[in-house]
Amino acid sequence: MFKTKDAWMNFFYSFGAAIVILGAWLKITHINIGPISGNVALTVGLITEAIIFIIFAFDPPKSEESYAWENVYPELLDKHANPNPLHSNVSSRNNAAQFAELENSLSTKLDKMLQDAKLDVQLFERLRTGIDKFSTSVDQINQTVDVSASTHKYNDQLNKAAEHMESMNALYTMQLESGKRQSEFANKYVADMQKSAEQSEKFNQELQGLTTNLNSLNRVYGGMLTAMKS
To answer: How does DSSP assign 195-228, residue by residue?
Structure first.
């Protein structure tokens, strides 16, 4: 299962960390697993980690020789190999020439592809003209949409104004009816006042007649009393 020392050490590290985490969980939640409490599990885990770190202290670190750099750089296998600047310069010039040749080849192929697809300057000009026309059409559509929105808003305002006019007409009709009723009441009141004035005048006349009759009656009684005394 574990064929190397590093694999065994990794197993011990992970196992000890798991015990510490389990002990911390039991300690925080105050849960006991049989006779194992949080304190016991946490203590065992910490002691295990301490032992693992003590063992790790005696484990020497890996040296540079443990890495197989020769698999990446085969030149390292030859201890007497010296760098050759001339060879490096020649290689650089060859690489530059190959890159230039590749660039020219790609440019030629790209030009041929554009020619085969008939992608010339006139086509791009027509494309630009079409895009400009499309942009102009979009602007006109936007203007039309704006006008439509303004018209809709104007219609809404007209509808609101019509509703307000209807409300004002209804209020005016109510005012007319109220004024008519008040006028009728005023006319009736004036007529009643006139009738009351006529009745008052008639009452005054009757009262004056009654006063005259009483005066005449008093004179008659006075004459009778005078005659009886004599």
So the answer is: HHHHHHHHHHHHHHHHHHHHHHHHHHHHHHHHHH
Low-confidence ranges of the chain (pLDDT < 70): 1-2, 60-99, 114, 117-121, 123-124, 145-148, 230
Phi, psi of 90 (to 5 degrees): -65, -40
pLDDT value, residue 196: 78
Residue 184's identity, in one-letter code, is E
Tokens representing 99 are: 């890159």
pTM of the complete model beyond 0.70:
no
Amino acid type, 56: F
CA 94 – CA 199 distance, rounded (Å) = 142
d(CA 119, CA 224): 154
HSE at residue 2, side-chain half, CA atoms within 13 A, is: 8
Contacts 24+ apart (CB under 8 A), 41-50: 44/19, 45/16, 45/19, 45/20, 45/21, 46/20, 48/15, 48/16, 48/19, 48/20, 49/16, 49/17, 49/19, 49/20
Strand partners, 33: 36
For 82-108, the pLDDT digits (tens) are 554 444 444 455 556 666 777 777 777
Distance from C-alpha of 14 to C-alpha of 49, rounded to nearest angstrom: 10
d(CA 92, CA 151): 74
